[in-house]
Design brief:
It is built from eight helices and eight strands, in the order H-H-H-H-H-E-E-H-E-E-E-E-H-H-E-E. By secondary structure, it is an alpha+beta fold. It folds into three domains: 16-73, no CATH class; 80-173, no CATH class; 176-228. A three-stranded antiparallel β-sheet has the order 1-3-6. A three-stranded antiparallel β-sheet has the order 2-5-4. Strands 7-8 form a two-stranded antiparallel sheet. Helix 7 packs antiparallel against helix 8. It is globular.
Length: 244
């Protein structure tokens, strides 16, 4: 297709690479989800799901589009095209019934984004970017076939579902969140050092360096250091059980 730089010039079919370029040129973390939704019918359906999955973790206002997303995506999973090969494999390992968590303000306990890691949820409402006046951790359960997607790109063990049944709401733990943020920051800075050492070896290394730096600067909301890892089949961090 031709190089049309207008963000509104979307009246003809677009391929996935063109759509990726369009988002890079014309969107930010707050406008991106609306723009992705605007590409429904312009991209082939599987390509649109891939684009949505690639950009889900980069959007800051998903709750604004919750009804529109539910209307487009439905409630039954999995939506394989939203996930990478690694995420699809991890999804297949999940148990049939999941316990999940959501960190948020006490006034907005419903949402599409949940996590399998209590520490991720607990840390989320204390970050600079998402700090809320009344931070809570919501606990819920959901059947695996009602999980649309599992996202691992930010090491948050995030699941996307419109069918979570709330079972508990408790105040979030600020001291625990601070501890996890310190661990996360250390791990991410070590990652940056490694990527900086590789940065002279080509564009791929430079891209990884940029991603690592972005994650350090992006409020450290992931739960655990990379070297500790997360076991999606168990639904808990490897360094110990989720706090009660």
């Amino acid at each position: 297709m031709s190089d049309d730089r207008s963000p509104n010039a979307l009246t003809r079919m677009m391929n996935l690479e063109d759509a990726r370029k369009h988002l890079r040129l014309h969107s930010n973390s707050y406008s991106r989800m609306g723009m992705v939704l605007g590409l429904v019918g312009i991209l082939a359906w599987e390509d649109w799901l891939t684009l949505l999955g690639e950009n889900w973790s980069c959007c800051d206002n998903i709750r604004t589009y919750r009804k529109a997303l539910r209307s487009r995506l439905g409630v039954r999973g999995p939506l394989r095209a939203m996930m990478t090969a690694k995420e699809n494999a991890a999804y297949d390992e999940l148990p049939d019934l999941l316990t999940c968590y959501r960190g948020c303000d006490s006034s907005i306990t419903l949402g599409a984004s949940w996590t399998l890691d209590w520490d991720v949820a607990n840390s989320f409402p204390f970050t600079k970017r998402y700090m809320v006046p009344s931070p809570v951790v919501v606990t819920g359960t959901v059947k695996k076939n009602r999980v649309l997607s599992l996202k691992l790109d930010r090491d948050e063990a995030e699941i996307i579902s419109f069918s979570v049944r709330k079972t508990d709401v408790q105040p979030a733990d600020k001291s625990r969140a601070d501890e996890i943020h310190r661990l996360r920051h250390t791990a991410l800075m070590n990652e940056v050092k490694v990527e900086m050492q590789k940065s002279q070896s080509g564009s791929e290394a430079n891209e990884k360096l940029g991603l690592a730096l972005n994650r350090v600067n992006d409020t450290l909301i992931s739960s655990e250091p990379e070297h500790l890892g997360f076991n999606p089949a168990l639904g808990q961090a490897k360094y110990g059980p989720n706090p009660t």
